[in-house]
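Could you help me review a protein record that somebody else here produced? My question to you is simply how this chain folds and whether the tokens agree. Thanks in advance; the entry in question is below:
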Amino acid sequence: MSGAEFEFGLWLSALPLLLAAATLTWLLSLPLRNAGIVDPLWSLMLFAAGVVYALDSDPRAPRLSLVLWLCAVWAARMAWHLARSQGPGEPAAYAELRARHAPHFALKSLLRVFVFRALCAWVVSLPLMGAFASLRPWSWLEFLALALWGAGFLVEMAAALRRHRLAALLGECCVWWGFYGFALSAGAWWALPGPLLMTGLLLAAARAATNGRIMRTTS
């Protein structure tokens, strides 16, 4: 079987949906004065991109059903957890961002928060498109990818129960390198920017969480 070709048109077709979802959520955030509602949207945008790719892929693709279901399970759990964990009012990180970018944060947040998330989700979703992009049969990489995804998902769930932020970020990183394993087995080596960007975003989030904890300890 041939490798997976990168179809820019298919990748681009997911972007309008992500931008529309980000814009609608931004409009909802204005009367609520809560930019934090973008957090539960994050995983749902990634799943939505996966659905777009799946609908335009060959239904015979060996990894299509499994990867799409794995993404659905991950996205639903993540969105539910993030929505449930938000207390009343705007989360502290977004409140600080609002104060730092005042005045007119409401307008600025469209690009700085919501569109930024949509663009990140668009890039991160590349392994999903890659996993659906060829008819290559399964290989040992599938089993490694599934093990990595499963380990990351279990770490995320355990970290959520214990409220261990850094462990949850590690679990999310493993999940997306697992998705890349499926893409790589399909011959989609070009999906690498997806997990790399996710890793960079998670490292930035880990640094922010660590700095915040240090500040609370020393104050």
Residues 8-218 form one domain. Residues 193-218 form the longest helix (26 residues).
